[in-house]
Write a structure and sequence with these properties.
The protein is mainly β. The chain folds into four domains: about 140 residues, Immunoglobulin-like (Sandwich), CATH 2.60.40; about 100 residues, Immunoglobulin-like (Sandwich); about 130 residues, Immunoglobulin-like; about 240 residues, no CATH class. The two termini are about 60 Å apart.
């Protein structure tokens, strides 16, 4: 529908409404010399290349002409069909307008939208500009013609494949294709059909695959895919023009092209496309290194009698060593002519079709495609370490932990509300996963058995969608929820004594109790390394909610909860770590006296004071809360934890605190009698309860010292096996000891934040710990790994803070990075979340040259 405006109006394109405003006029241009200067027009997006439909389609139009504009026409195609014309009735030389197209709730607009702007002046001179915007809309009907693709060739009597994919959240009722002219092809399918009509219930993604036989001996024909959703709305793909070639005497080799990533893993895909009017009989690829053929793989496709064919092959280079390794790849094909013409890649313009996926995956838009190498006749590429597997159903990963008992990595997927399971043995995900982690599973930790690093077949998952921790049995054949541990509500209070009249004032601050990141620790049976049955604890941070009062807006807290499956309040225990912000030995200028209550609602019916005003703890309440994404990780032996203040941090400096179970925990020791709090201690006002104190938390004065040393926003934290070395990633990587004292730094480029240490790293940050220095540790274990945004992983010595080398991977690690070992401690793996899924790398023995052979110059690849 074409819309023309002359003044302010509300216009509609399909189901969308656009409010537009203008005061334009035009004038006739006179004079002897004709106007030959064309206007200019520029289209720009106002909300990014990808925009959500809820915010509308936002773009700007800027046009200029030396004498005057006559019209500006906007043509929408792709995910939105329509035209918007602006007619000027007075002189307008400059036009600069921002447009926002708004959509109704059930609009089917969405996908890639092309906007073509055309500015015309009074003498008919014109200029055009184009902008593409991807409009995200789960209701959008998206139709893609996979095959034939641009540049397709055909010949009489030969087949040409058709492949169409349609996606719409409400379901697809019909899918098919249209050919013009219709008599250019016949359909050999019995019975012949050009579409499929589905019955309810409709699938949200469908695929149509067929082969057509070409009739004419020359010329061209057009083909377009279409689909209809459950509401009867029809959408179309782009149009592909197919050229028909003669096969009178074919002595010409096929046109061959290939596509492959610049960096590949050993089992990655190479896409090969070949075209020939005599049809393609063989298609494949060749790999060589140092001018020596390494692999030549072809398949016979003559039975298809297709003149345009694409095949996707696995490189199959599992035996290639060492990695990284440079190789050369080329596509290959032969035609079906009598002369059997063959050729390697000979085209740079023919783009192979992408892999065809049968059905769209919900959430798959969060996983990006592997970047492809520039098109060329021969691609020199690098084979790198690791294998990457996509997430089973898309989504995103918040946290991960490795269970050596079953050699599986467990990953929380808050987008889909499930825990993913990746098995090392078969390098694949368990499709079923674990759906009982809660609606928003976030942090994850293992269940400790002792302080030697042993753990049970149980994981602890922080459910940010509720106020609970999910305790899950992960044994194969079980994989079910054991219990959901209800978390208490903590009431943070300030306590003051007011005069005239004498009275107490308690101001209550009720903050979010929803857990985010979690770690586990335990306290042992005296004289043994075994965890006491009632002394397994979860240390967790909270995620703030919008209802939190000032000064806790957007701030988290850190807490501890004893993990026990009971409703007996005498056996339950929880602690809010006030110690990181409060210390009665500090000056109290401008500080408030702190009071804390713990409350467990029904069926527990418990409320008690766990820090009274009598303890004399004073805090700066503005500094009490932490960043809204505060990280928690525990040591490999479950005796220590590190907490890093991440996310949006209101203060100038983010904090890092440490925790140890080796210090005294005082709790549930009630005051013998109410203690007086009035100025004369006469008992006119008083407080009662217990004063719980955990001396394992880093004191606030030590935290302040660390802040002074660093003072930047934190992106991730890591701790080693014994908690003696800790890493904090901010603008640099900071190496800290058990007491959070800064020992050294290393560079940390922005754009990737994952890091971890060798699982056997058992060193204290302030000591080298190797035989060279009188210790017993292996220097090859004294290393850390940190991700880089360019797809490499740096390897560091954690005592000398020097770079040992680099591990090259295919895709940048943009999420959690974890290093783990098997139960026998004979193998170690590095896991990382990339835009394409999960990458797993079996780590080689990394030789640490420090201190005898420090490396000067650029890092060398680790093989």
């Amino acid at each position: 529908m074409r819309l023309v405006r002359r003044s302010s109006a509300v216009l509609y394109i399909g189901s969308l409404a656009l409010a537009v405003y203008a005061c334009e006029t035009s004038r006739r241009i006179g004079g002897v010399q004709p106007d030959t200067q064309s206007p200019t027009i520029t289209l720009t997006n106002a909300g990014g290349d990808t925009q959500d439909i809820a915010g509308g389609l936002r773009f700007n139009v800027q046009a200029n002409d030396n004498l005057g504009l006559k019209t500006i026409d906007l043509t929408f195609s792709g995910g939105l069909i329509g035209q918007l014309d602006t007619l000027f009735t007075t002189e307008v030389k400059t036009y600069n307008v921002g447009h926002t197209l708004t959509f109704s709730g059930g609009s089917g607009a969405g996908g890639l939208i092309q906007i073509v702007g055309r500015a015309v002046d009074g003498n008919g001179n014109f200029a055009e500009d184009t902008v593409f915007i991807y409009l995200q809309n789960i209701q959008a009907l998206r139709v893609r013609l996979v095959l034939p693709s641009a540049g397709a060739l055909a010949s009489t009597g030969k087949g040409i494949p058709v492949d169409i994919i349609a996606v719409q959240a409400g379901g697809i009722a019909k899918i098919g294709y249209l050919v013009a002219p219709a008599n250019a092809v016949t359909n050999p399918t019995a019975p012949p059909t050009d579409s499929i009509v589905y019955s309810t219930p409709y699938a949200d993604s469908v695929e149509y695959v067929d082969t057509l036989v070409v009739v004419p001996s020359s010329g061209t024909f057009n083909i377009i895919g279409f689909a209809e959703d459950s509401a009867g709305r029809r959408g179309f793909s782009s149009v592909v023009t197919v050229t028909i070639q003669s096969v009178a005497t074919d002595n010409t080799p096929p046109v061959v092209a290939h596509r492959v990533a610049q960096r590949v893993e050993v089992d990655d895909t190479i896409h090969v496309r070949a075209q020939d009017p005599s049809a393609i009989s063989w298609i494949g690829f060749e790999v060589d290194t140092n001018n020596v053929r390494m692999k030549f793989d072809t398949v016979n496709v003559a039975a298809g009698n297709l003149s345009d064919i694409t095949r996707n092959f696995s490189l199959g280079l599992q035996g290639l060593q060492p990695l990284p390794h440079t190789i050369v790849v080329k596509g290959y094909a032969c035609d079906a002519a009598v002369a059997r013409n063959c050729s390697f890649t000979n085209s740079t313009t023919l783009i192979p079709s992408a892999p065809v996926q049968s059905g769209a995956t919900r959430g798959a838009k969060t996983v990006s495609a592997v970047p492809m190498a520039p098109q060329g006749l021969i691609d020199t590429i690098v084979v790198v370490a690791g294998i990457t597997r996509p997430l089973p159903f898309g989504g995103r990963i918040a946290d991960a932990i490795f269970n050596g008992n079953d050699s599986s990595l467990y990953l929380t997927n808050p987008t889909l509300g499930r825990v993913e399971i990746f098995q090392v043995a078969n390098t694949s995900f368990v499709a079923a996963g674990i759906p009982t982690g809660g609606p928003v599973p976030w942090g994850i930790a293992l269940w400790p058995r002792d302080t030697l690093g042993n753990y049970g077949d149980t994981i602890v998952v922080a459910n940010s969608g509720g106020v609970e921790l999910s305790i899950i049995d992960v044994r194969p054949g079980v994989r079910r929820l054991v219990w959901r541990h209800d978390l208490p509500d903590y009431l943070i209070e300030t306590y003051k004594i007011l005069l005239s009249p004498l009275r107490e004032q308690i101001v209550l601050y009720d903050v979010s109790d929803r857990p985010q990141y979690v770690g586990t620790v335990c306290r042992v049976v005296t004289g043994t390394p075994n965890c006491h049955a009632d002394s397994v604890f979860a240390i967790y941070s909270t995620t703030p909610t919008l209802s939190q009062p000032t000064p806790f807006v957007g701030k988290a807290t850190v807490r501890m909860e004893k993990l026990i499956n009971t409703t007996d309040t005498l056996k339950l225990f929880g602690h809010l770590f006030w110690e990181l912000a409060g210390d009665s030995t500090l000056a109290d200028d401008g500080r408030d006296t702190l009071r804390i209550e713990i409350r467990r609602g029904r069926p527990y019916n418990q409320q008690k004071t766990i820090l009274t005003a009598c303890a004399g703890v004073t805090v700066d309440l503005k500094a009490f809360g932490l960043g809204d994404s505060t990280y928690v990780r525990n040591s490999g032996n479950f005796t220590h934890a590190i907490v890093g203040e991440g996310g949006n941090v209101a203060s100038a400096f983010a904090r890092v605190v440490g925790y140890t179970t080796k210090a005294r925990l005082i709790h549930d020791v009630a005051l013998g009698a109410p203690c007086p709090t009035d100025p004369g201690f006469a008992g006119f006002t008083s407080d009662s309860g217990s004063n719980d104190l955990d001396r394992g938390m880093t004191p606030a004065i030590d935290v302040s010292d660390f802040i002074s040393n660093t003072g930047v926003s934190i992106h991730s934290v890591a701790t080693n096996f014994n908690g003696g070395t800790n890493l904090v990633r901010a603008d640099s990587i900071y190496f800290l000891d058990e007491g959070m004292k800064l020992k050294g730094t290393a560079p940390a480029p922005l754009g990737a934040f994952g890091m971890d240490m060798n699982f056997n790293h058992n060193f204290v940050a302030g000591s080298p710990g190797t035989p060279t220095f009188g210790g017993a540790g292996n220097p090859n274990d004294r290393i850390a790994f940190s991700a880089r945004a360019d797809g490499n992983i740096d390897v560091w010595d954690t005592f000398f803070f020097g770079q040992i080398g680099t591990i090259v991977v295919r895709d940048p690690i943009i999420g959690p990075l974890r290093v783990a070992r098997n139960k026998a401690n004979t193998r170690q793996w590095l896991f990382g979340i990339t835009g394409a899924g999960l990458v797993m790398i079996e780590l080689p023995v990394v030789t640490n040259p420090f201190p005898t052979n420090p490396m000067w110059g650029p890092p060398v690849p680790i093989r």
